Amino acid sequence: VITDLAGVLEKNDLVIDGGNSRYTDDAVHAKQLAEKGIRFADCGVSGGIWGLKNGYGLMAGGDAADIKLAMPIFDALRPEGPRDEGFVHAGSVGAGHYAKMVHNGIEYAQMQALGEGYELLEASKEIIHDVTGVFKAWERGTVVRSWLLELLVKALEEDPEFKQIEGYVDDSGEGRWTIVEALNHAVPVPTISASIFARFVSRQKDSPAMKAVAALRNQFGGHAVRKS
Question: Over 90: is that where the pLDDT of 35 sits?
Answer without folding.
Answer: yes
